[in-house]
Design brief:
The complex is a heterodimer of chains A (295) and B (318).
Chain A lengths: L4 H32 L6 H18 L4 H22 L9 H23 L14 E4 L2 E4 H23 L1 H11 L1 H6 L4 H23 L9 H16 L4 H21 L2 H18 L14
Helix pairs in contact in A: 1-5, 1-8, 1-9, 1-10, 2-3, 2-4, 2-8, 2-9, 3-8, 5-6, 5-8, 6-8, 9-10, 9-11, 10-11
Chain B lengths: L6 H18 L3 H26 L6 H18 L5 H23 L4 H21 L1 H4 L12 E2 L2 E2 L3 H24 L1 H11 L1 H6 L4 H27 L9 H14 L4 H18 L3 H18 L3 H18 L1
Helix pairs in contact in B: 1-7, 2-7, 2-10, 2-11, 2-12, 3-4, 3-5, 3-10, 4-10, 7-10, 8-10, 11-12, 11-13, 11-14
Classes of the chains: A mainly alpha (295), B mainly alpha (318).
Chain lengths: 295, 318
Amino acid sequence: MEVSATYLLQLLLNGLMLGLIYALIAVGLALIFGVLEVINFAHGELLMLGGYAMALTLPLLGLSYWPSLLVAVIATSLVGVVLYEFFLRHIGQAEFERSILTTLGISMILLYGMQYLFTATPMMVDTAYGFDGVEIGSIRITLTRLIAGALSVAAFTGLYCLLKFTQFGRAMRAIAQNREAALMVGIKPRHVARNAVALAAALCGLAGAALAPIQLLHPAMGQAMIFKAFALVVIGGLGNMTGAVVVAIALGMIESWIGGFFSIVWQEGAIFVIMIVAVLLRPDGLFKRGSMRVG
Amino acid sequence: MTEPRWTSYAVLVAIALLAALPLMTGSNYIVGIAISGLIFLAAAASLNLVYGYAGQLSFAQLGFWGVGGYCAAIAVVDLGQSFWFGIAFAGVVNLLLSTVIGIVITRTTRHAFVVVTLTFALLAGLIARDWVGVTRGPLGIPGLPPPSLMGFAFDTSARFYYIALVFALIALAFLYSLKTSRIGLILKAVKQNAPLVESQGIAPGPYKLAAFVIASVITGMAGGIYAFNLKVIDPSFLDFYYMQTFLIIVIIGGAGSFWAVVLAGAAMVVLPEALRFSNELRMVIYGVVLVAVMMFMPRGVSGWLEDRRIAALRKALR
């Protein structure tokens, strides 16, 4: 096979976009784990809901991209608030298995409920941007992908600033680092945890909405993604957000390159093999667990 | 909690009723549900050993279920062996596989344990789909022949039912005796107070590994039998749906409680069928039940009943 630089670069760009989307999902999982010590099984379904919210509002708003995106993000963050207030709030710190099973149940309700309402047939989502693309030299990239990538980068910048410079973010980091000390200085864990879940859900909704015009939409799409996101978070170190982002982007590119040269088998399996090796070598993940350091 | 005295009578009556089931109904539909129910029950009871007794929430059981199904099918179709050999083969492969995996993962934290076992299950699904040379990929292996024993073919649902029944009874009897054995008692003690057990000079590790391996072997053999019940195996055999069903049975009954899980298995197989929901709605109901149980009685029905009993005792004492 002839390997051209253009092909490699094209794969790199595709992988980067994919990795940024993975990172949006994984960073939310890491955030929830850091603050609540809960692995959110329903996280993939939040992504799927974001996608469907986008698909349903687009035709209503005349295919305009940005307002629909906003609706999707707000809708999923509200789902996140409901998820916290009704379910996660009642689960104690030490009840790890209970939290997994509860969120698994919620994921089943959302997944099969959506499948019942919209059937398992994949949906195509069309935006005003259609299949327009930008050409840089001989590399072509569709506008929707470019926007998805830019949105992710913007979201990470926003998240970084939020966690580093605002009271809202400082409280979140404080809880993750030392719950008792945070309580003593008057931080309310309940508010912080709710904010964390809403924020993580919003990131997921953003990922789903950005993904909707790029790939086919179907109720099980979240499940396919979430398993990868779990693996990413474990490789990166549970609860470590920087680790999640770095590993996610790296994986997106690795997957893209593998997919470009080998059969699809290896592309899908790569992450799991990488994860098993990573866990064997470093059971706590590549990056240090705990304290959600953002800088 | 000790068993009430009537338990053994209840078990005998239940076995007699189950043995007579195909004679009481001519409906293949009902017998078919009973077959799935019995096989799911054996798998769920094994999961109960891993999660309920050893306290390890393992999603790897789905992988072992699938590996067992494929091993049995391949032994019969490609290696030309009998069904019985296939089931034994499924058991042996799972024994080796779960020992290797178990040694690695029983060392990780419980957070990582969940994710790694989940990954194993998904990897098994990917291999089933993509290793076309062995598993035939998405096409699967159709036309699995009915088992036969000394010239007697188990070629109808009613006949196959007895294979499922005998297997489920042996598996449950084995798991029951394990529960009351030293291994079971130590697992129970580990769950209640691990440092105390260690101070007695007992390392919990090998016991947890043993529970994991035994459960995997039974789940694998159950998967093998289920594949022959379906007469076809393809990657959908590793659908997450099966894992969810096993989990639901364990959770509703109450992890760590033997009889409650058996009863919950019967209830969760029969109920949705009796109400004749669509497959999606059934899974939605499973989800609602799972969330409700986790919210209101996290130790399952048996834990809830025990709490009631203790509350009543306290009230009587006052």
